[in-house]
Specification:
Helix content is about 30%, strand content about 15%. The chain is an alpha+beta fold.
């Protein structure tokens, strides 16, 4: 009988050289598996550059929280000796250079226990952007300003672009603001690029996004996709080898006559549609285009498989999302007529206006549609979804 052996560090003399030129996920995955080895395993950063380093930091934090022992070594250059960082000092590493960092994992068992997952800066980024683009401030709770998450960079990006915001220990408030173009190295926060591209479309001047060449191999080509969709609204986006240049509609940005005939703001021609490119981050970022009533009748097809579409972005816009999967995408406040159905399945006793605007209801709707007992079944889930979509426009008026 075949016996599964698992990872054997001895086959690689105890050390593996792994690059992060295109993704940090392989590096993190190997770190997570390494404690199951019978002997220590060192993973040395190789390649030409390291993208998304903060995500590896999150992996190391998770390993620490679950009782796994490891050491992190760095050096000034490939000819210099290795120096072991004091315990926990890896949290201060803003970047990692190939050939100058390695992590040695020791055998061990993950320690069970209660664990609170901190708020997701990636998911919050759409709401924070909505605060800057919309007609009223947006406050997002449950965010740690000292988080190791790379997408916490949304704070500094908004500030650089001129947004007014307030930071509390566990919340961030962003106010409607006039934005201006900036130069941004987004190698450590690539997931934010589609959203920042939309912000840049409304900004005065040009925004240069760099060090994200690897975005071409994500769920979609996240350089070409934003450029293609924003071009439909009259925004000029130049695709570059490692990013993009977005010429905002808030000013000429030094481009002179080249932009003389562009619209005063992003606007989708009548009858035109936007595509999500089967990419959830594209769908969520494009939803922001309607926040200033400058884009109307935004249809974003092909997003039926998208999880956790942010409710607030859709509630505040004219965007409509189609879905053709078992788990439909939530498209607005639940009509009062279906409260009893949702309450019965999800155990929610009362639906308030506040609840209709919040994430709790989004989760409730998803739970309803994915009822594990199939008490209502796919047919009823589709009826609820269609009812919600049909009534979205009517219920949007209460928030205007």
């Amino acid at each position: 009988m075949y016996k599964r052996q698992g990872l054997n560090p001895a086959l690689a003399d105890g050390i593996i050289h792994l690059g992060m030129d295109m993704s940090s996920q392989y590096f993190s995955g190997l770190l997570l598996a390494a404690p199951f080895c019978a002997t220590p395993l060192s993973v040395e950063l190789a390649g030409r550059k390291a993208v998304s380093w903060p995500y590896v930091g999150l992996t190391l934090q998770c390993l620490t929280d679950f009782g796994i022992s490891f050491s992190v070594e760095t050096r000034k250059n490939e000819a210099a000796p290795w120096q072991t960082l004091p315990e926990g000092d890896w949290r201060d590493l803003a970047e990692a250079r190939p050939g100058c960092l390695r992590v040695t994992m020791r055998p061990g068992a993950y320690r069970p226990g209660d664990y609170t997952v901190e708020g997701d800066w990636s998911g919050a980024s759409y709401f924070l952007a909505a605060g800057a683009l919309g007609r009223r401030a947006v406050r997002v709770r449950g965010l740690r300003a000292d988080s190791l998450q790379g997408d916490r960079a949304m704070l500094s990006i908004l500030q650089k672009m001129g947004a007014r915001l307030e930071v509390e220990p566990d919340a961030v408030t962003v106010y409607p603001s006039e934005l201006h173009g900036v130069a941004l190295d987004m190698g450590s926060c690539p997931d934010l690029v589609p959203t920042v591209a939309v912000l840049a479309a409304f900004a005065k001047g040009s925004t240069r996004i760099s060090n994200v060449a690897h975005l071409r191999i994500k769920e979609s080509d996240r350089i070409n996709a934003p450029a293609t969709e924003l071009a439909k609204t009259g925004v000029t986006v130049d695709e570059l080898s490692d990013g993009m240049l977005v010429s905002g509609t808030g000013g000429t940005g030094g481009m002179g006559g080249r932009l003389r005939n562009r619209p005063a703001a992003p606007r989708l021609p009548e009858g035109a549609t936007l595509s999500a490119h089967n990419d959830h981050r594209m769908a969520m970022s494009l939803a922001l285009l309607g926040l200033r009533d400058l884009v109307t009748n935004v249809n974003i097809p092909n997003c039926g498989q998208i999880p956790n579409l942010p409710l607030g972005a859709v509630v505040e816009t004219n965007a409509h999302f189609s879905a053709d999967s078992v788990r439909p995408v939530f498209a607005g406040p639940v009509p009062q007529s279906v409260y009893p159905l949702v309450s019965r399945v999800c155990g929610i006793q009362e639906m308030t206006v506040e609840a209709a605007m919040g994430r709790d209801l989004e989760l409730a709707f998803q739970a309803f549609c994915m009822d594990p007992n199939m008490e209502l079944g796919l047919k009823d889930a589709r009826i609820l979804y269609n009812t919600m979509v049909e009534n979205t426009a009517k219920y949007l008026t209460m928030y205007q």
